[in-house]
Write a structure and sequence with these properties.
This protein has a five-stranded mixed beta sheet with strand order 3-2-1-4-8, with helices on both faces. A five-stranded antiparallel beta sheet has the order 11-10-9-14-15, with no helix packed on it. It has a three-stranded antiparallel beta sheet with strand order 5-7-6, with helices on one face. By secondary structure, it is of the alpha+beta class. It is globular. It starts with 8 loop residues before the first strand and ends in a 10-residue tail after the last helix. It has seven helices and 15 strands.
Length: 302
């Protein structure tokens, strides 16, 4: 897979079984602002024609575009466990199979040879181990859908990791554990974060109800959930985080909100759990660049 150093546009491809979404973000050039285009489509053989149409409409060449694939439960599963820091690699792998495999409803549907592990020290001789596992048929299906376009894929991973908002609410959330709620059609996705680290993704069918206790959730919004906190004194346990003016200024159809929010957040978050396999030369170059300068922010909204 060739690595594009400087792309002019990023195509976000959301994959949810038989439903797919395309969200094209064209980076601003000169005095012109960013351009965003959204399409929802079935996952069928016409996918590449739709991709070409959306690029033609934005007057962007294939070679100037990188593709990011956003996955959500159950296509991808993220959870965290706590393991003694002295555990060997084989012991960690055994604990993952023992503690995670046994809790999944359909473990046979996941690729147990292709999962990502992130380890952070938790203190007291214990590590916080976050495991992200792909659905077994996800990559083959996406490769089949994208065909030649798959060569430009730069990211495959859990889209809910980009619900992280600690940098936006730094004073309130610093060092805290919190959850985010993302309404998405009839589903409600939740992502848990600890000190800004993504530790869990899950989906709630919630009987298709928008009521969460005393809170009525709007489909075109994402929410900070701190109901587990005590002594909040006149502070709501569920809070909207997107200013309405920002979403309205995007001029997109209401169905585009989840992808719009996640795409915006992904452009200015550094560490990402990514299943794309880069070549050794690319990894060495990326490491060298990281040592020279900090991650450069790319803001979705001008």
């Amino acid at each position: 897979m060739n690595h594009v150093q400087k792309s002019k546009a990023r195509l976000f491809f959301t994959y949810l079984k038989d439903k797919t979404e395309l969200f094209l973000y064209v980076k601003p050039h000169g005095t012109s602002g960013s351009e965003m285009t959204y399409r929802r489509a079935p996952g069928d053989a016409a996918m590449n024609l739709r991709i070409q149409a959306i690029l033609n409409h934005a007057k962007v060449h294939n070679s100037d575009t990188e593709i990011w694939i956003l996955l959500y439960p159950p296509e991808i599963y993220t959870t965290t466990m706590y393991i003694p820091s002295q555990a060997s690699n084989s012991e960690v792998k055994a604990l993952i199979h023992e503690q995670i495999f046994s809790t999944l409803s359909y473990p046979i549907n996941y690729d147990w040879e292709n999962y990502h592990i992130t380890v952070h020290e938790n203190g007291h001789n214990e590590n916080m181990v976050t495991v992200t596992i792909l659905g077994k048929d996800v990559l083959p299906r996406i490769q089949d859908l994208l065909d030649d376009n798959y060569d430009r894929v730069r990211f495959v991973g859990d889209g809910l990791q980009f619900l992280n908002i600690e940098s936006t609410f730094f004073q309130q959330l610093r060092g805290q554990t919190y959850k985010m709620i993302l309404p998405y059609d009839e589903m409600y996705y939740t992502a848990a974060f600890r000190s800004g680290l993504h530790v869990e993704s899950s989906v709630l069918t919630h009987a298709c109800s928008s009521s969460f206790g005393d809170y009525e959730l709007n489909q075109q919004q994402v929410y900070l959930d701190i109901r587990q906190k005590k002594n909040l004194i006149h502070q709501p346990g569920i809070q909207p985080v997107v200013p309405c003016s920002e979403w309205k200024s995007a001029h997109l159809t209401s169905a585009a909100f989840p992808t719009w929010f996640i795409a915006r957040n992904s452009l200015h978050q550094g560490e990402k759990v990514n299943f794309v396999r880069q070549s050794p030369d690319t990894e060495e170059l990326s490491e060298r660049k990281r040592s020279i300068k900090k991650f450069e922010a790319i803001h979705l909204l001008d």
